[in-house]
Amino acid sequence: MRARPPGRLYLWAALVALLAVFVASPAWPSRADTATPAYDGQPRSDTALFSIKGTNNAAAQEFVTDDSRVDKAALYLSNGAATGSVTVELRTVREDPASAIASSTLDIAKLGGGGAGWLEFPLGADVTPGQTYYLFAQATTTENKPIAWYGTSASVEGSLTSWNYDLSYWGGWLPYGTRLAFFVNPTGTEACGDPDLCYRAVPDSVLRAATAGLFHNGKTTAAITPLMAYGATYVPDSNVLEMPRGRWRYLPAGATEPVSVPANDPGALRQIAESRAWLKAGIVPGKSGPEREAAARALLSMRALLQPNGASAAAWHSAWKYSWPRDSSYVAAAFAQTGHPEEAHRILKYNAATQRADGTWEARTKLDGSGPPDGRKWQLDANGFVPWATWQWYQTAPRPTRYADLQKLYPMIQKAADYAAASLTEEGLPPASPDYWELDTDTANIGTAAPLLSGFNASADLARNLGHDEDAAKWAQAARKLSAAIVKHFAPLGYQRTVDGKHGRDSAAAFMAPPFNTGPADVPTALDSTFAALKRANGGVVPGDDPSHNWGDATWTPSTSFFALAWAGLDENKKAHQVLDWVLSKRNILGELPEQIAGDGTPQSVVPLGWTDSLVLLTLRDLDTGKGLPVPPSIR
Length: 636
What we know:
Structural class: alpha+beta
Number of helices: 14
Shape: elongated
Helix content: 25-40%
């Protein structure tokens, strides 16, 4: 629920305008050993690159081929329209229609309407080997639906330039470092050589999300596209996909791209067995079959988003493919509470390695740990969430090694807690800081204050366990000071977003409840009124009702899940189950949990979201235990 410019929310809005469908990546073309430099195929198609709809929009891809004739070309397109046409031309001069030596037009209605996948265009033109040509594409429709040519933003060795034509925005043509997905004279499994990747009609509701699931081989992750997911199912308790025609698709050991194989392929079977063994080694929470099925899928998705170095991607797409200390703290806690302490510890070590010298964290980091991807403002709530997650891990970590492991993590805790304590004002409030909305506030917000309170208590208890009594006393005092300030300034407002009372309700009021804080007696009433204020017609909630911010019709599964977890922690199990059941009912066609739910109740944005996975697991675990999840104690 990153409501910041630019950020996940704003990127999502842009992708909707371009039809946010994350597309498949078949095998690379087998033309590397040619006599002359040829670039006549690029299969990676993970990003909506350019709109090609209307007279003001088009795209072109430079290519060179060793062939003397171009019989056909394939483009990976996504289309939301039921009618219209798509035209591809083979040009010698990119911007000159008169230079076209071949042209082909496909009728969208005859293709089955809206859909996505590889489209092959017959061209039948003689060409000169080694000469540069351009594949030009443009679509027409009277419908207000996007039509886009996909490709990749990753670097492609030996690639030639991709061009975007946007008359109203660029004033004409603009070269890009991104690379469009195309093949000239595709052969073998290229383009529609793999029938599961060929263009087919897909309901618009399926195409609203950028991703649908995850392939994973223990080292590498790849997204499952909505197109690929449509009509497919996971082989139970695995990341192997059973395609509509019966073949399996998975990410083999050591590979970076998924492949299609016959059902019961030995490599796929080994991966299935390993996934099931990993699940069996821990706890799959849930009392009903559907709950346990959802929990197993959430665990496998969190595992797929977790990198070998401990970075935990929020989701496997574009601006979500980074590690947030906030999100990863929830994931670490969920791993810890489901019997996977090694994965939890790996995340905590990554957070220790990426902590800044002053004890704070960047808003997010690249998955290789090299630093932030941009200048997004850091957020102080990490100084509460990371110590809380460390405390949760310590409660479940193997006793023979946990003391020594905590000693190694302790410098991270010390720096985080010391910075947070020093940041409190004389009244005990934290400074104004962006929180999980990733937007600035003018005064202290509950989305920072509540996590810091939990973090102080967690840090003090961890310090006491290691015998650092002075640190424990110092941070316990900071907790008491902050707690008193929260009672004085936030409680009278019903734990609204900010202490000035100008920004309405906030789902972060749930952070005042377990498993973060024991919470004052008025927290349950505040949660009831906050949930009622934030609930929307589709049954979910938005992060807040700040009058200066319009969240639209879509609701957010993390914010909704905050309430399920809080009510479970407060032993209001009926309310917790009602919210949890709603979240689980919004899983996509593969059983994955999305970030957002559109106004009509369908998943959108990215799927799965590790944060929501962790929240669901923590809620199920709390409900399973009968005694709730542990809460950092207040040290008096």
